[in-house]
Design brief:
heterotrimer; A mainly alpha; B alpha/beta; C alpha+beta; B: alpha/beta; 2 domains; seven-stranded mixed β-sheet; six-stranded parallel β-sheet; 20% strand; C: Beta-Lactamase; rod-shaped
């Protein structure tokens, strides 16, 4: 999924190639099959829906005819009857499935009309002629037909309904493909592991310690992240519903608090979580984390008061933070400097795949069975993650306690490290002008404003999930490319500035339009912009860490911690802006924050002494 | 919210105190001992308003004795009635029309309040502009001992109805400048009409000894049409809309000038073209609702808002519309009551 | 014995299962959406009946009559109850008692209004129980007070039958399709694994790999991809994981 930088050998990995090919087969079969199935489904739907639509339109026609007949009974000539077109308009406007209404004289002359008569071509392939879309009712005065009323059903309404259906089907397919990929990767690796054991055993190398296959970590991480991502499309709205139970808290704050607290607990739990997972062992730590998350999600689903809801969100966040730091710890434990990037890429790949699948699947599930049930599904996913870990690693001693030294993320021992990092102007500039604004925008817009803004304009949860998915989709596609290009062009600063400005450009249109494709497009662009920044930021952190003589992994640990703490501000800032103006303005504000701080970053980062950089290079 | 409920609580507390002292709960009077004494001060005999009022109270189980006073808008006769009311002290006074109501309760800021009824609940009806007539200082919560109902539609609704019939630009009015409510109505209409960038031709009847002459009506209507008026407005003006409505309607028809009225007799019994009015019976019932609040629930009139009906009926005289070839639009026809077919 | 056939079976199984599940889910979802839309159209049609009865009742109320006095409503209800799928129509007072009904036996009874959900527009409320749909609309008088409700009861059996028909039809038309596609998937997976194996063995010959250990299973020809991959992988791992 995520192509690893500086390790082109992985690209030729035959296993991955095989998995890609197999995934391609799955995609092809799915596409063909789903197209066929949808075509069949739409065909039968239309055949049943159409008579019902006709019946309804006939009812509307009858109401209109009764009104006009009244005028005819008073001997008002239809040619001189004012307001005829307006009456048609009034009636048609409340029925989106009717495209056209007209009063026609016996000679065929149109006396009044509203709407556009659907053309013969617009009719979909249901085998219906355009006449089939018309309803004709005679207009009668004093018992004599004097004109006729024509109503035309809107074939485009049927098409729109189908488009909506197809989008939903496409989301299911996308999620299936990603899930298939994850499972295939695992199945192929499992098969390989068995062969390897045999072949190595036969070759008399049984005594040698095999490396832990990190691919096996992917499924647990994927499932675990899914448990949280499922609730993305509705979490703010869910909190909004509970807001009245805590009247002493302003509604806006009540809505933003769950996300803010989650981010805070997650960030703050990192140093302790890292130590804990080092002490009790990765396996136990992950199981504890999954248990905490499952418990938190279950109780969140059952919470009927904002305070308990917030409490259970914090428990979930604790589990989430612990699981991620543990998984990261496994990668760090079992990789060396050379292949660590590849290991982390596997880990991040699972994270992003869950980011794509979670909101889409969660939105669809929530639309069908409700938000609480979706949270329970999430709890199930967390437990499944624990189960997957147990099944895949068994009682592997290398995941047990004291297997490896504690990771170098955060912690008391590293106090001087943060002092050294903070003392570096470049680190401060990177942190405050790029990393934190980017994270603020990400949490503020993606997790908070988008669900509220779209729900306000009438979108369903599935639609919100689809829009949120666009972010991760863009991220998955762009980030490897951005990483490679920024390496090749040696242009980290440029990518970071560009990403900040692209965030502004992506989000600004949302301030005006949030209908249909525009929101999905804007969020896709937002994901694109954030993907530009991500890898170059890390590279800069590594460079800085070597200059201030702090271990790379420690520097990155601090970078992530500070970034997440900043991210906790996102919903708060968003809610302040939204309360003062509107959701739309808040989105624009987030974009401006990123854009302006990117420009400032460009100005300040340039001023860093070039000599320092060159001396660092030579040393 | 809180102040209101506190007031209610105080009132209930007060009423309970009365009950303890006198043993008489106001509401129980309806079903037990003596019937309520209601005095009606009318201008033109009993009509639909009074029928609606009495029917409503009868349905609520209120036993009442009605005493009718005919005032006919004569100030001297009204003064005599006020003196009698002060002596009899009925449970409720019902007044019909602006002159009777002003005569009984005076202006709310009148320097000599003793000349009027200030300590007996008074409900008025058929008053078109109680604020302008200084009968109450506010509609929402009038204070004092007076509340009531307005029988004509709010002026914006009148203007909307005229414009719904046709998007006209120029409107003509002929009115009696000696009638206070008529002058106020024309002033209100002018503000609303001009606000929408339209033209109003207001033509007061000439007065001789403060009295208009019906003979001036045809000339003034013709003048209206010559000014370019596309429609004639007949306001809450007793001289034009009630006393001489046949002359007004016939002349307008002859001049091919469509007319709009805020009261309906000119459309029902004469060839006025259309009207926006509330049914007299419905307004009477609404007044009855307020009477029940005073008599049964012990509410103070000052706490009862002055209201008009939420719904008005459009009455169209189809014979006139046909004669003028000036047909109502379908939307209006849809919910209008059609007469003169 | 691990060879290509096992891999094909496993991978093919995974893909087939996911594909089948995805199609089933997609169809289920599409059906649920359609179900919702279909019932919405029916509700919109029956909503016209509610509106019509409301319009006629409120005309009477605006004239100053009490709801209970609108005697000619019975005729209105009986006419309106002739609309398709309508079982009966009631006029309820503000306590839920039936004042008028197209079915005279219901007069005086009390309507069960539990479980009603207001529609987005707020003008109608609805409730579906089994095959019975209840649609209500509030009635206001000339003072702007709510004095009662129009309640239209409709029979959704025809709609439910139509939906069941669609469900059957979808199952019968897509099931063979899915089976065929799954077989095709297995074939495609088999071929891919084979071809990958061949390509790899072709490539391997040009590269200096250590010879397979004697105990290694294999019947020659194409295939044995997994084994080659493992070797490939181990080679890679020796380089990078040491």
């Amino acid at each position: 999924m995520v192509v690893t930088r500086g390790n082109p050998a992985r690209n030729r990995d035959p296993l991955r190639t095989l998995v890609f090919r197999l995934t391609a087969i799955a995609v092809a079969v799915l596409l063909v099959l789903s197209l066929l199935a949808s075509w069949l489904a739409l065909h039968s739907f239309e055949r049943v829906l159409y008579p019902e639509l006709r019946l309804k339109a006939a009812g509307v026609a009858e109401i209109l005819a009764r009104q006009i007949n009244r005028a005819l009974d008073y001997d008002i000539p239809l040619q001189e009857l004012p307001g005829l077109a307006e009456a048609l308009e009034r009636e048609i406007k409340v029925h989106p499935d009717i495209a056209y209404a007209a009063v026609e004289a016996p000679d065929g002359q149109v006396l009044a009309a509203y709407g556009a008569r659907p053309s013969r071509l617009a009719a979909p392939g249901g085998g219906l002629a355009s006449e089939d879309y018309d309803i004709l009712v005679p207009l009668v005065g004093h018992g004599q037909a004097q004109a006729q009323l024509r109503l035309s059903l809107d074939p485009a309404w049927l098409t729109r309904a189908s488009t909506d259906l197809m989008l939903e089907v496409a989301s299911v397919i996308l999620v299936s493909v990603l899930v298939t990929f994850e499972i295939l990767l695992l199945v192929v690796n499992l098969s390989m592991a068995k062969v390897k054991t045999r072949s190595l055993g036969a070759a008399g190398m049984a005594g040698a310690q095999q490396p832990v296959n990190l691919v096996f970590l992917r499924l647990p991480v994927f499932l675990f992240c899914l448990s949280e991502e499922l609730s993305r499309p509705f979490m703010p709205a869910y909190a909004q519903q509970l807001a009245p139970t805590a009247p002493w808290l302003p509604v806006d704050l009540a809505v933003s608090l769950p996300i803010t607290l989650f981010m805070l607990v997650w960030a703050l739990s990192q140093p302790t979580g890292a130590r804990f997972s080092g002490r009790v062992g990765r396996r136990s730590a992950f199981l504890v984390a999954a248990g905490l998350s499952a418990l938190g999600l279950t109780l969140t689903a059952l919470a009927d008061h904002l305070v308990t809801f917030l409490l259970w969100r914090c428990v979930t966040a604790l589990g989430y933070g612990l699981a991620l730091i543990t998984a990261q710890g496994v990668v760090v434990d079992h990789t060396t400097g050379k292949n660590r990037a590849g290991g982390l890429a596997l880990f991040i790949g699972a994270l992003l795949a869950a980011g794509v699948c979670g909101p889409v699947a969660g939105g669809i599930i929530a639309d069908q069975v409700g938000a609480s049930a979706t949270l329970l599904v999430g709890a199930g996913a967390a437990l499944a993650a624990a189960l997957a870990l147990v099944l895949l690693f068994g009682r592997d001693p290398r995941l047990a306690a004291e297997g490896f030294s504690a990771p170098h993320v955060g912690g008391h021992a590293n106090r001087p490290a943060i002092a050294r990092l903070a003392g570096d102007g470049r680190f401060a500039a990177l942190m405050t002008l790029s990393a934190i604004p980017a994270k603020v925008a990400a949490t503020g817009v993606l997790f908070f404003l988008i669900p509220l803004l779209l729900a306000e304009s009438g979108a369903g949860k599935a639609e919100i999930g689809r829009v949120q998915m666009m972010y991760f989709l863009a991220f998955i596609i762009i980030s490897p490319l951005a990483a490679t290009l920024s390496d090749r062009w040696q242009s980290r600063r440029g990518f970071i500035i560009g990403g900040g400005l692209a965030t502004l450009i992506g989000l600004a249109p949302l301030a005006l339009w949030d209908q249909g494709w525009s929101a999905a497009l804007a969020i896709g662009l937002f994901g694109f912009a954030q993907a530009l920044i991500s890898a170059p930021q890390l590279t800069l952190v590594t460079q800085i860490s070597s200059r201030v003589r702090v271990a790379e992994i420690t520097a990155i640990g601090w970078f992530r911690l500070l970034e997440r703490l900043g991210g906790a501000l996102g919903p708060l800032l968003a809610v302040a802006l939204a309360a003062a103006w509107s959701y739309h303005v808040a989105v624009l504000g987030m974009g401006l924050l990123c854009g302006v701080s990117a420009l400032l970053f460009g100005l300040l980062y340039r001023r860093a002494p070039p000599t320092a950089a060159s001396s660092e290079m030579s040393s | 919210m809180i102040t209101l409920s506190r007031r209610q609580w105080l009132r209930w507390g007060g009423a309970a105190g009365v009950t303890l002292l006198t043993g008489a709960w106001p509401a129980s009077a309806a079903t037990s001992e003596r019937p309520f004494r209601i005095h009606m001060v009318l201008g033109r005999g009993e009509g639909a308003n009074e029928a609606g009022f009495k029917d409503y109270l009868a349905r609520r189980g209120v036993r009442a004795e009605y005493t009718i006073h005919q005032a006919g808008g004569d100030p001297e006769r009204i003064a005599a009635i006020v003196a009698e009311l002060q002596a009899v002290r009925p449970d409720l006074i019902y007044t019909w029309g602006t002159p009777q109501t002003r005569g009984v309760v005076g202006a709310w800021d009148d320097p000599e309040p003793d000349r009027y009824i200030r300590d007996i609940p008074v409900l008025f009806t058929y008053v078109s502009a109680p604020l302008d007539a200084r009968i109450v200082p506010r509609l929402e919560q009038p204070g004092g001992n007076v509340s009531g109902t307005i029988h004509i539609a709010p002026i914006p609704a009148q203007v909307n109805t005229m414009l719904a019939y046709r998007a006209i630009k120029r409107l003509g009015v002929v009115f009696n400048p000696a009638e206070r409510n008529s002058v106020l109505a024309v002033e209100g209409l002018r503000q609303e009409w001009v606000k929408r960038g339209l033209t109003l031709f207001a033509n007061p009847l000439p007065l001789t000894d403060d009295k208009p002459d019906p003979a001036d009506i045809p000339d003034l209507l013709a003048h209206c049409r010559d000014q370019g008026a596309e429609m004639l407005y007949v306001g809450p003006d007793t001289f034009i809309a009630t006393t001489h409505r046949k002359l007004v309607a016939d002349t307008a028809l002859a001049l091919r000038l469509p007319s709009f009225s805020v009261t309906e007799p000119i459309v029902r019994s004469d060839p006025g073209m259309f009207a926006l009015s509330s049914s007299g019976y419905g307004v009477g019932r609404l007044t009855g609702v307020k009477a029940a609040q005073i008599l049964l629930e012990g509410k103070a009139p000052g706490d009862i808002p002055v209201e008009t009906l939420r719904r008005f009926s459009v009455v169209i005289n189809m014979a006139t519309a046909k004669a003028l070839s000036f047909y109502p639009p379908l939307g209006l026809l849809n919910f209008a009551e059609v007469v003169g077919v | 014995m691990i060879d290509d056939r096992v891999l094909v079976a496993r991978v093919g199984g995974v893909i087939a299962a996911t594909v089948a599940l995805a199609i089933a889910l997609a169809l289920l979802l599409a059906f649920l959406k359609f179900d919702q839309r279909f019932v919405d159209v029916t509700v919109a049609r029956l909503g016209l009946v509610v509106e019509e009865v409301r319009r006629q009742s409120e005309t009477g109320l605006a004239l100053g009559l009490e709801l209970a006095e609108l005697e000619d409503l019975t005729g209105v209800l009986q006419r309106a109850a002739g609309a398709r799928d309508v079982l009966h129509i009631d006029i309820l007072d503000d306590q839920g008692a039936v004042l008028f009904s197209s079915a005279p036996a219901r007069l005086g009874s009390r309507a069960d209004l539990g479980g009603l959900v207001a529609d987005a527009g707020g003008r109608l409320s609805r409730r579906a129980r089994d095959h019975e749909l209840l649609l209500t609309g509030r009635l206001g008088n000339g003072f702007g007070q709510m004095v009662g409700d129009v309640a239209v009861y409709a029979d959704l059996t025809p709609q439910h039958q139509a939906l069941a028909g669609v469900r059957r039809e979808l199952l019968s038309s897509t099931a063979p399709l899915v089976v065929f596609a799954l077989l095709l998937t297995l074939l495609a997976v088999f071929l891919t694994v084979r071809l990958s194996g061949r390509a790899d063995s072709g490539r391997d010959q040009s590269r200096p790999w250590p010879p397979l250990s004697p105990g290694q299973p294999g019947r020659g020809g194409g295939g044995r991809l997994v084994v080659r991959v493992v070797r490939d992988k181990l080679g890679g791992q020796r380089k990078s994981w040491s």
